[in-house]
Amino acid sequence: MIEEFRRRLSEAKTFGEIFELVKKAVKKTIGLHRAGLELVLMDLPNNIGAAHEVGSNMIIMNETLLEAFLQVARNKVEVNSYVFVILLHEYLHSLGYIDEEEVRYIVKRIVADVIGEDHVTYHLATNSLFDLYPELQMIGPGGIGRDTKIVRDFDRESTHYIG
To answer: In this structure, is the dihedral angle defined by the CA atoms of residues 5, 11, 17 and 18, taken in order, positive or negative?
Structure first.
């Protein structure tokens, strides 16, 4: 199972493909599932990688931080691992886990189970992004700015109704 997850994560080309892995990992490890989420990219304060408002169907990812990470990541596996950890964390919030410490612990456990502790994904799940990539501290505090972008074909299980 670990090799399959690693292979699929390294080959993923879209947010949607990575999110499918997130949902599969959560289903396999803690047995929970949810469909109907949207991903929105927008500027946030740079100490926030992403956010999920309780009761909503949106995950909001910090576009500025993502763009900065794309500049410092050494390869596609690091980028996909970063996106995986961010989406996993927010997906758990969407499933009703509110406490940040509990969510961080569950993220760590899920990543260890499906990807392993010897992978960059585990390091991203268990360490501060700014400790692993100190050059990211130079991007400043961030904040609200550019227009939001809705990521198309993010959650392929979403049902669309024609009204």
So the answer is: positive
Q: What is the mean pLDDT of each run of 10 residues along the chain (163 residues)?
A: 96 98 98 95 92 93 95 97 99 97 98 98 97 89 74 75 44
C-alpha neighbours within 13 Å on the C-beta side of residue 21: 29
β-partners of residue 39 are 59, 151
User: What local confidence, expressed as pLDDT, does residue 137 receive?
Assistant: 87
**What stretches of 20-160 adopt beta strand conformation (E)?**
38-42, 50-52, 58-62, 149-151
DSSP annotation of 95: T
CB distance 101 to 140 below 8 Å: no
Give me the residue label for tokens 């596609």.
76
Q: What is the DSSP letter of 142?
A: B
Distances in Å between the alpha carbon of 160 and those of 14, 40, 100, 126? 20, 18, 32, 36
| Alpha-carbon distance values, 27 to 30, 91, 126, 133 (Å) | 6, 11, 21, 31
Q: How many CB atoms lie within 10 A of CB 134?
A: 11
Is 59 within 8 Å of 87 (Cβ atoms)? yes
59 DSSP β-pair partners: 39, 52
Here the tokens at position 83 are 């996106």
